[in-house]
Give the backbone structure.
Amino acid sequence: MDYTFDISLYGHLTKDIVINNFSQTFTLGAMANVWECLTSVNPTLSINLEPVALGSALILVDEKNSSRVSKPNMNQILKPDINTDITSKWSHILYLNQLPNLEFIKNLSNISKYISADISSGGKIPYEYLKYIDFLFISEEDLNIPLKELCNKTKGWVILHYPNGSTTSNGKKTIKCNNKIIKNLNVLGAGDIFASNFINQMLKTTSIKESLELSHTLTYKALKQKNDEKKV
């Protein structure tokens, strides 16, 4: 199949209100984070943006413990008709468990080679749609059933990530990656950066283990660079 785009992004585009040590800043989040990272690591990628919902989020950053918490209001404006006619090598869905209408996912399997999605904090995981997902990104804090059970519900691989690494499994094979935990780091957007790096690497190599290991390294470097730039 000839694809029109390398990647199509579906899901949320948010206005983020970020509180860091009582200092307040405003930025675009969700889809914007993934787009920014993808265009940074590989400017040659052709990317199709299909926002499904517009919303906002209040985010508190704790640099000392390299963590963050958020209070989202994701679905303030919903798009009634979602375009699934444009072919892409890879379709990525942001915040799968926050979208009220997921019927469009059924059509993505006809126009994309791979479909990935991530899970955000809050909201019920839509298990009935996981049979369409080749790669599911979820953080340890959002996992509320055994990993093996989640793998059995997912078409492909579940990528469970946490501060010191990740565990990736399809229920039969498991890949573990370990990271050193770094303190005093603003980790805002880390999940989106990690997913972006993984997608970019998979489009190049198709080696899951290699893509995971490199994505962890590149994600830390990107976060470290952002933190260093803010201190200048």
About this structure: The CA atoms of residues 7 and 90 lie 5 Å apart. The chain has five helices and ten strands. The first helix runs from residue 31 to 41.
